[in-house]
Write a structure and sequence with these properties.
Elements lengths: L2 H14 L15 E4 L9 H7 L4 E2 L4 H17 L3 H18 L2 H22 L2 H11 L8 H10 L12 E6 L4 E4 L2 E5 L2 E3 L8 E5 L6 E4 L5 E5 L6 H9 L6 H11 L2 H7 L2 E7 L12 E7 L4 E2 L4 E3 L4 H13 L6 E2 L39 H23 L11
Helix pairs in contact: 1-12, 2-11, 3-4, 3-5, 4-5, 5-6, 5-7, 6-7, 8-9
């Protein structure tokens, strides 16, 4: 067969049999997952490796990054390597204060700045020690003994002089919380004591809105226009800080599902899992609890399930099966909210009933669902090609084929 007849054949197939063209299937995105554990407890590396390529984790937010720095700072303090972690400690601490609501940031920030003070004192980094001491000085709960002894060394007395003119803080929407440095003052609109723009800052925050930081001067009016919080890493950080499968976590996920950008990035199902015991030191291969949230229906899709203690690959397989709805059975977890089944048996979801156009004769042949007229056209094209080949074989005359649609 010459090149001309091959071109004619390709043209005919493209015109009359488009259903036989094979397209490269698009890669299906991995289902999302959230590691929900107590602060400063990162995802175990072995489990993360076992889940690689099976689920995807959203980029770490400020809380998760701060937790990682706390773990690194503990190890550096014990091995006399504080200078290696000090820059990242400062960056994580400032991001935590600038972006995370004060109530949520408080536990991890207290620990992070405490480690910063200890490390900075050990290597003689006075500016970092003063920054950490400034934050810790606003803490209402008693500090550990080692921090309480260091704190006075790096706190500077207030400069002598008359008080600075107050600053009026307003926000849109109103009723936002105002924090001066690390101290909660009240709700907008209100007057706060003036400060120095090189030392003092004011934070304005409102649930569901982005936190705003501004330098604090004196004798001025500060108006802050708040915008909705839509950064997925920060929102999932907040979800991960809540107990797995709880009603508070469901409320946070419901609010998250209402954001179009977040719902588009996450898809339909979200796997939330974490250690069964949120207190104490983590143990390698410890038992986990997990639950799947349906972002479209905005409700838990499965009861709370327990993943037995064991090697990371086995736990990862159970988690993936739970997310896919194919886990044969999982043990119920004590304290499961009312209204859920006692046992976390996860069954495969029923297949949707086929539509009329998808119904076939029941044959399992590759082309069982091909329409009858496709076979008729295919037969006509085959006869046409056969005639062309015969004509080329036995005749030297040129043949012109004209197709009219």
């Amino acid at each position: 067969m010459t090149a001309r007849w091959i071109q004619v054949l390709g043209l005919c197939l493209g015109m009359f049999l488009p259903s036989l063209a094979l397209a490269e299937p698009a890669a299906k995105p991995l289902p999302p997952a959230v590691w929900a554990a107590a602060l400063a407890e990162p995802l175990p590396p072995a489990l993360a490796q076992a889940l690689a390529g099976k689920v995807r984790f959203v980029e770490a937010g400020p809380i998760q990054k701060a937790a990682e720095q706390v773990v690194a700072a503990r190890a550096a303090l014990a091995s006399l390597r504080c200078s290696e972690v000090m820059p990242s400690l400062r960056r994580s601490g400032e991001a935590l204060l600038d972006e995370v609501p004060v109530a949520l940031a408080q536990p991890i920030a207290r620990e992070l700045f405490g480690l910063m003070l200890l490390c900075a004192d050990r290597i003689g980094d006075a500016p970092s020690a003063e920054r950490a001491a400034s934050f810790l000085s606003y803490q209402t709960e008693p500090l550990p003994t080692d921090l309480a002894l260091l704190l006075p060394r790096y706190l500077h007395a207030t400069a002598f002089g008359p008080p600075r003119a107050p600053v009026r803080v307003e926000s849109d929407p109103s009723g936002a919380t105002v924090i001066r440095n690390a101290q909660v003052i009240g709700k907008t609109p209100l007057l706060i004591d003036g400060g120095r723009t090189d030392l003092d800052v004011v934070y304005v925050e409102l649930p569901g809105m982005r936190k705003v930081r501004r330098p604090l001067g004196a004798g001025e009016s500060l108006f802050v226009s708040l915008r909705p919080e839509d950064r997925l890493p920060l929102l999932l950080d907040q979800v991960a800080s809540l107990p797995v499968g709880s009603e508070t976590q469901a409320a946070a996920l419901t609010e998250l599902a209402g954001l179009p950008a977040a719902a588009m990035q996450l898809g339909g199902r979200l796997l939330v899992f974490g250690p069964k015991l949120r207190d104490g030191a983590p143990v390698v291969g410890e038992s986990l609890v997990a639950r799947v949230f349906d972002l479209e229906r905005r409700t838990w899709l499965t009861p709370m399930a327990e993943v037995a203690i064991g090697p990371a690959p086995a736990q990862a397989e159970t988690l993936v099966a739970l997310l896919a709805g194919t886990a044969p059975k999982a043990a119920a977890v004590a304290g499961t909210p009312a209204g859920t089944a006692a046992a976390a048996a996860v069954t495969k979801p029923a297949a949707a009933a086929p539509s009329e156009k998808d119904k076939s004769t029941g044959s399992k042949l590759p082309f069982a669902k091909t329409k009858w007229y496709t076979w008729v056209v295919a037969g006509g094209v085959a006869a046409l090609i056969g005639g062309l080949l015969i004509a080329e074989r036995f005749s030297s005359e040129k043949i012109t084929v004209t197709a009219t649609h």
